[in-house]
Write a structure and sequence with these properties.
7-stranded mixed sheet
């Protein structure tokens, strides 16, 4: 599934709460977490930030890039690693299947993407367990925090359905 250029602006709207730069700290994030939250990070900087806060994401999706610049991968820790190919501005069926598989595995799990991970927020929001919190970066603005609900699942599915 490819993201048509005509929809790019629609995909720039945060799916959840935007914690502006400077407010994307551990204290503000922990306000949304419960003891059994399933924490999901999409993006290298977001994953690294949570690990540095001492919050190990249950599912981490990274691609080794930050704002299109190659970077070192966040430290792995004890996560099980999966690898997928997912081209820029696309969501492959393989990516969706691997994300679904990751949710059935013992956490933490890291999916390393050859290509780009940005749009994988959509299948993550659709298939994540009910008690999930998804975090991803909004370039130059801050951190988006999404509490998974049926409303969010429907919104993500609607956006995914717009892709051809």
């Amino acid at each position: 599934m490819k993201l048509p250029d005509s929809l790019r602006d629609q995909f720039k709207t945060p799916l959840g709460i935007l914690l502006p730069l400077g407010q994307d700290n551990k204290e503000n994030i922990e306000k949304y977490l419960s003891n059994n939250s399933y924490l999901i990070t999409v993006g290298d900087k977001t994953t690294e930030k949570m690990i540095n806060f001492g919050l190990t994401p249950s599912l981490q999706i990274i691609d080794g890039f930050e704002k299109r610049q190659k970077r070192d991968l966040p430290k792995l820790g004890n996560a099980t690693e999966l690898k997928i190919d997912n081209p820029a501005a696309e969501i492959t069926l393989e990516s969706i299947e691997i994300i679904k598989k990751a949710f059935s595995m013992t956490a933490p799990v890291r999916i390393t993407v050859m290509g780009e991970e940005d749009l994988l927020v959509l299948p993550v929001c659709i298939h994540a367990p009910d008690n999930s919190i998804v975090l991803y970066g909004q370039p130059n603005e801050g951190l988006v925090l999404v509490e998974i609900s049926s409303e969010i699942r429907n919104k993500a599915q609607t956006l995914l359905d717009l892709m051809n």
